[in-house]
Design goal:
Elements: H1 9-17, H2 21-28, H3 35-43, H4 47-62, E1 65-69, E2 71-75, H5 103-117, E3 121-125, H6 134-147, E4 152-155, H7 158-168, H8 172-182, E5 186-187, H9 197-203, H10 210-222, E6 226-233, H11 239-256, E7 259-266, H12 273-276, H13 286-299, E8 306-307, H14 311-314, H15 316-322, E9 329-332, H16 352-361, E10 365-369, E11 375-378
Parallel strand pairs: 1-9, 1-10, 2-3, 3-4, 5-6, 6-7, 7-8
Antiparallel strand pairs: 10-11
Helix pairs in contact: 2-4, 3-11, 4-13, 5-6, 6-8, 7-8, 7-10, 10-11
Length: 379
């Protein structure tokens, strides 16, 4: 494990020799960094001093403790009308493989998972299904809270909220308010991909635009619905577009303080239209993950507290390494996930004891958290 308690000696020497030394020293002095600095970090290949600084910043905040959440992902429908090129999960309306879970099945899955695995969170996400009205989601959330009040509902992307509002011919803010009343605790960050409309026009032209994702997140924060922020990188975006994505999230966070965590994850091209059309053949790989984690910690230092190591698309080994590059959270256990599984890239089942073992293997202490990153139990 890379443990660096100060910047004296060799550490100071390596940072000073870096082509981004001024940025790294400013980060260690807790200065807020801007777009130009973020772009320079992405363009630098001097990853070791960048990683040293990101690890120091993580240690200042969390010492030697890494968290995880015990949850399931519940993909309630695969029916979708946005046809994103990066997705292997969706099925069009009327497709023979299309499905939508019944209310009884949704509640059953949560109850069984609570009883068998002791989950404290359910992450509810699906496709953009035009046949589902707001009452479907309200009934599901109310039923979950009635039967399992101790399970937090981390549910629905901004783009799903937008679809529901269109079906209802209502505003997204009204939809969010009603969902909160029904039991929604927090909002995942999905649907952002890269917050650049040129990228979105290429990979997800029918999905919400960048400003709409930001607006819906701001509305959620105004209603005191905390959320995650995400980035799906490794499609057609440039390093500058990645940097602009991060800065747009930082700017909204400065305004609302509603983002609890940032979660970058690597695009998996298997069985997607992007791969079929020859745009991207391979995933971004481990180096890009570690660089993304390190830069995110530096830029979001003092802005967004938590940073996930993103094991789902990069595997457990890379997620372990990411803990030495600035990540403080391992993410969640996964039972029943279907979106990444649809690419066929790897098994996406992971139990709590496997996460605990993975974190301890590299010398960290482990704490289980809830929806809001509050510690439930130390291991």
């Amino acid at each position: 494990m890379l443990i660096l308690h100060n910047t004296s000696g060799l550490v100071h020497h390596l940072i000073t020799k870096s082509d981004v030394a001024d940025i790294l020293h400013n980060a260690l002095d807790s200065h807020i960094l801007g777009l130009d600095e973020c772009i320079r970090l992405f363009k630098s290949n001097d990853i070791y001093p960048i990683a040293m600084v990101s690890n120091i910043l993580r240690q200042r905040l969390y010492g030697n403790t890494v968290t995880f959440v015990n949850n399931i992902i519940l993909n309630y429908t695969n029916v979708c009308i946005t046809y994103c090129k990066f997705c292997a999960f969706y099925r069009p309306v009327g497709h023979e493989e299309a499905y939508t879970l019944s209310l009884d099945e949704i509640v059953r899955r949560v109850l069984v998972s609570r009883e068998m695995f002791g989950i404290t969170q359910v992450l509810i996400q699906g496709g953009h299904n035009p046949n589902l009205k707001l009452e479907f989601y309200e009934d599901a959330f109310k039923a979950i809270k009635t039967r399992c009040p101790e399970v937090g509902i981390h549910g629905l992307s901004a783009s799903e909220i937008d679809t529901i509002a269109k079906v209802e011919r209502s505003s997204t803010k009204e939809v969010l308010a009603r969902l909160k009343s029904a039991g929604l605790d927090s909002l995942p960050g999905a649907g952002a991909e890269i917050l650049d409309d040129d990228v979105k026009a290429e990979i997800s032209p029918l999905k919400i635009k960048s400003h709409e994702w930001l607006r819906i997140m701001e509305e959620a924060h105004e209603l005191d619905i905390k959320s995650s922020a995400t980035m799906m990188y490794g499609t057609v975006e440039t390093e500058e577009q990645r940097a602009r994505h991060i800065m747009k999230i930082a700017e909204l966070q400065e305004k609302t303080r509603g983002f609890m965590a940032f979660i970058p994850w690597s695009f998996e091209p298997n069985k997607t239209r992007i791969q079929a059309e020859g745009l991207i053949r391979y995933s971004a790989g481990g180096f890009n993950l570690l660089k993304m984690i390190a830069i995110s910690r530096i830029i979001f230092n003092g802005v967004i507290d938590h940073l996930q190591s993103s094991w789902l698309t990069n595997g457990i080994g890379m997620a372990q390494l990411a803990l030495n590059y600035g990540a403080d959270d391992f993410g969640g256990t996964l039972i029943g996930e279907e979106v990444v599984t649809a690419t066929g890239s790897r098994s996406t089942e992971l139990s709590a004891h496997k996460i605990i073992d993975a974190i301890k293997q590299i010398g960290f202490e482990v704490a289980e958290r809830d929806n809001f990153y509050q510690t439930i139990k130390n291991y």
